[in-house]
Amino acid sequence: MAAGIVAVAALGAVIAPQSAAQAAPGPRTLHAAPNGSGEACTPSSPCSPQAARDAARTVDGRDVRVELVGGTYEMSEPLELGAADSGRDGHTVTWAAARGAEPVFSGGRQLKGWSEAADGTWTADVPEGITPRQLFVDGDRAVRARGGACAASTCDATKTGMTGATATGIAKWQQPTGAEAVIKVRWRDYHCRIAGVEGDDLTFAQPCWTNSASGTNRTGPAWDSTTVDSARYSGVAFFENARELLDKPGEFVWDADDRTVTYLPRKGEDMRHARVLTPVTERLMVIDGAHDLRVQGIGFAYAAYRQPSTDEGYAGTQAGLTLTGATGPVDHAGRHYTKPSGALTVRGGRDVAVSGSEFTHLGGAGVILESGTKDTSVTRSRFTDLSSGALYVGDTEPEPAAELAGERNTVAYNTIRRTGVEYTDSVGIWAGYEASLAIDHNTIDDLPYSGISVGWGWNQPEAQKSVLRDNRITGNRITNVMRVEHTQHDGGAIYTQGAQPGTVVSGNYINRSAYGNTERDGNGIYLDEQSSYIRVEENVITRIGYKWVSNWADYGIQNHATGNWTDTPPLAGTGSTMKDNHTKLDRLPSEALAVAARAGAREAPAEQLRPDLARTGTASQSSTDGAAPAAYATDGDTSTDTRTLAEPGAWWQVDLGEARRVGQIEVWNNTSMTTADFDVQLARTADFADATTVHVTGRSLRPTLLDTDAEARYIRIKLTGTGRVALSHVLVHPART
């Protein structure tokens, strides 16, 4: 009997705390609406977001949930959440979409009152305080009216400006000082406004031009040769935002003097009924010093990025960061560069979680985590149609104070597409000096430059010792990056800088990085500038314009690549090792397909490689210059090159051994991009009497793709003039069945 009483007493002791926990107050739910004006923050009397924030500050001893009903929240200033808006005593504060709702914080303003001109353009007045740099018509991005390229021989750039005003017609433009020059040099992108025209000479807004030119001692490493007045400069990519350039549907011009926007509609657009928005408010939510905070299911749209429209312009340095200010400290390691504006910015946050949100139609970047943000995550969110990059994590100081160090942050299961639309040097995900950062299972597609970039400092003395370590870039799906039409070079799908002990790059699927490139450039995984102590393992890397893994700088040490699958050969730098990699593949094995399918925000099949009939064929050429035999184009190695003598009608060919139905031919130019203006002939007979011929004008790319449907045993690449044929790779794919 006594034992039974003791047992019941013990059971009661177990049950009592559970009952107390069940009796604890549940979360306090507050309600907000786009036009909320109440104070109770109830479903029937919702508050504005600012009023809901203030009400949440008064709640103690429980979780707080601010639910946003659907609709557009027009933000004239950001919603600011500080330390007072944190969860307290083990509780959390959550800002979330109500069930089934789609709330959107918008920094856009609608432009109305459009009138049509005789030339088919439409014009609207713009209110004071608004500078339309981007325009969205019924959700579709318009393009600032732009012209063609201007070669360096005409638009010759110097430290003070450039020539070319006469030849380009700019000297006769009605308002040339409203236009900008857009210049791309290797990995950099520059946008500077014209400040004046005198004769054939153009000058540009300051400090934009000075910060884009050499001589400031602030523009980057001492060896840098990518300023607008460097030998790498090849000309202006295009001038934009002049009325004289408005000639294509979907283009617009901003006239600062008349305060008007003029737009040439696309087919089917009716400006009498179209909803036209321009971004005005820069940051839509700023979380500064807050902790234990959640942001769930909120949309962020039409946020502005004002700096490029000022005299600062956009003096791009790398990855979407810019050099600003007329003066500053000598800096070769980018410690004082400026990140773009982000729609959602977290400064010094702790345990902040952003999930299920959407970032779209932005004039700048999506999310910025900075100033010592720790233990914070951005997950399962979507980023699309952004002028700059999707996410910026961390800062550019290599040895920050402990409270300013970025640590244990996570970027995972996000979908990133069509970012860097305007600032093509930006990347999908950028991280500076971070420790224990996880970039995991993101899907990244259709970017002009690199997909993921981790590390900073270009091996400059002040950057050689840093807090970088233990970062993980795992399970990401990165496709169609370093798009050659944007002419940004020297990057990779995954790019790193700096010594990063304990860092792992694993389980990623990379397909089509710099594919179809215009030069020997563009990588899969690029271990650049002192990248050291990094393990690269079990990645699937296919269709790369240059190297599948590049350890370019000889001072990068103790990197190790193992167990990777690729269709190109092994390449490594000094002090690093490669072991048990599967290279020169023309089909991906089942293990590789499984790794690739698991990569990304959700499972998806990989693009299988196509069999190469030339791999087992017999190659020959009209002549051989030095140690560059014809067989180098069929050895599955894009780092070995064939080369003939310079002669009329020089040729290279492969005998497949028997007639086969050919569906596609890939012609990869050599590393010097030698081969140009040639015929590709497909024949059943050795004398090519029955040949089908396809002509290629200009240089071959890496690769030039030629689709065909012909029965052939012999494939010949033959110059139509005098010169050399030099090739790194020729693949002959059978017709699909």
What is the structure about, briefly put?
The chain is mainly β and 737 residues long.
How would you describe this structure to a colleague?
By secondary structure, the protein is mainly β. The chain is 7% helix and 38% strand. The chain contains five helices and 62 strands. The strands form ten sheets. Strands 1-2-5-24-29-32-36-40-43-46-49-52-54 form a 13-stranded parallel sheet, with helices on one face. Strand 58 (676-683) and strand 59 (692-699) form a beta hairpin. The radius of gyration is 29 Å and the shape is globular.
Features:
single chain; 737 residues; mainly beta; 13-stranded parallel beta sheet; 62 strands; globular
Number of strands: 62
Q: Give Rg in angstroms.
A: 29 Å
Provide the β-strand percentage band.
35-45%
Mean of all residue-level pLDDT scores: 94
The main sheet comes to: 13 strands, parallel
Which regions contain 5 or more consecutive residues with pLDDT less than 50? 1-21
List the helices and strands and how they pair.
Elements: H1 2-23, E1 28-32, H2 49-56, E2 64-68, E3 71-74, E4 79-81, E5 93-97, E6 103-106, E7 108-110, E8 115-116, E9 122-125, E10 136-137, E11 140-141, E12 143-144, E13 150-151, E14 162-163, H3 165-168, E15 180-185, E16 188-198, E17 201-204, H4 208-212, E18 235-236, E19 238-240, E20 251-255, E21 260-263, E22 276-279, E23 285-288, E24 291-296, E25 299-301, E26 314-318, E27 321-322, E28 342-347, E29 350-355, E30 358-362, E31 365-370, E32 377-379, E33 382-386, E34 391-393, E35 406-407, E36 410-412, E37 415-417, E38 429-431, E39 434-435, E40 438-440, E41 443-445, E42 452-454, E43 472-474, E44 477-481, E45 492-496, E46 499-506, E47 509-513, E48 523-527, E49 532-537, E50 540-544, E51 549-550, E52 560-562, E53 565-566, E54 577-579, H5 590-598, E55 618-621, E56 647-648, E57 651-669, E58 676-683, E59 692-699, E60 704-719, E61 722-723, E62 727-734
Parallel strand pairs: 1-2, 2-5, 3-6, 4-23, 5-24, 6-25, 12-20, 23-28, 24-29, 25-30, 28-31, 29-32, 30-33, 31-34, 32-36, 33-37, 34-38, 35-39, 36-40, 37-41, 38-42, 40-43, 41-44, 42-45, 43-46, 44-47, 45-48, 46-49, 47-50, 48-51, 49-52, 50-53, 52-54
Antiparallel strand pairs: 7-22, 8-9, 9-21, 10-11, 10-22, 13-18, 14-17, 15-16, 15-19, 16-17, 16-26, 20-21, 26-27, 55-57, 56-61, 57-60, 57-62, 58-59, 58-60
